[in-house]
Prior knowledge:
Blueprint: H1 23-36, H2 42-52, H3 58-74, H4 79-91, H5 97-113, H6 121-127, H7 135-148, H8 155-163
Helix pairs in contact: 1-3, 2-3, 2-4, 3-4, 3-5, 4-5, 5-7, 7-8
Amino acid sequence: MQKWPGIFEKEVRVFFCSFQDPLYIKLAKLDLLVRLADLKNIDMLLSEFKEYSQEIDITFARKAITAVGRIAVKIEEAAERCVLAYHELLRTNVAAQYVVEEIVIVIKDIFRQYPNRYESIIKDLCIHLKSLDNADARAAMVWIIGEYGQRIENSIDLMMHFSDCFKDEAKQV
């Protein structure tokens, strides 16, 4: 794939994950799909990854969400579509806690790659602030609020949420 990137261009679907695939195969396929991502197949891959993010296996679902972010960082022209996919995941009624946490972690990297863009998702992230249990997600949210605080209406209140239990937070937070 590295030597001849176009060799699998028309065979991307071969690497889609099957329900019966063991986890290590699914994770390898996700990595391959990210490597194969281009502007021609981005919509198909995002649709597939959104389905994967609703899987029962939380590890696989988290990796699928991360894969969307990796594509956004890899292909600047696809970044907006990736962020829109995150918007859709956050707005579903079934947005599980781990989905929100993983999106917060990954969106921080997207914001670092593309500063002052895609800020519309911050409002959706702030809605789910109190459901963040993962220390990495909480640290990412603190970074987002600190970086974009002037654009968030209630940023001081949100930071107060973290300061209330500052001593109990993990080191990275």
